[in-house]
């Protein structure tokens, strides 16, 4: 029987929840999504939970922050002049917004504080430091 291994391409239905059961993301009511194990599209803990499993199997694991989205890193906190924000979209604390990153990429940042002059933005993953419950059904191994 074929099982998931490093470099496998799989079709996956999955759900991520916070420790309190708050759903973060789910595609259980949609089509399965294609992922490649080992290319960084899933966290290390998610990949570890899937490796060795066969098509049709369902896994459910609780991932520590280190195996999910890592811990917040104070080196990822940056000050941005408040004048860089458009007048029609004033920054708000705890707001997660997209910023232009290198090579036309998009980087998500969480506004952690606002003063008259600048906005403190944490570019750590928005789920950094959180325990994540990951449930997945392997629809197919391609």
Automatic annotation (TrEMBL):
Highest taxon, organism lineage: Bacteria
Enzyme class: isomerase
Domain PPIase FKBP-type: 7-81
Family matches, as Pfam families: FKBP_C
Catalytic activity: [protein]-peptidylproline (omega=180) = [protein]-peptidylproline (omega=0)
Molecular function GO labels: peptidyl-prolyl cis-trans isomerase activity
This protein's record includes keyword tRNA-binding: no
Record bears the keyword Methyltransferase: no
EC number: 5.2.1.8
Keyword terms, alphabetized: Isomerase, Rotamase
Protein family per UniProt: Belongs to the FKBP-type PPIase family.
Protein name: Peptidyl-prolyl cis-trans isomerase
Native species: endosymbiont of Galathealinum brachiosum
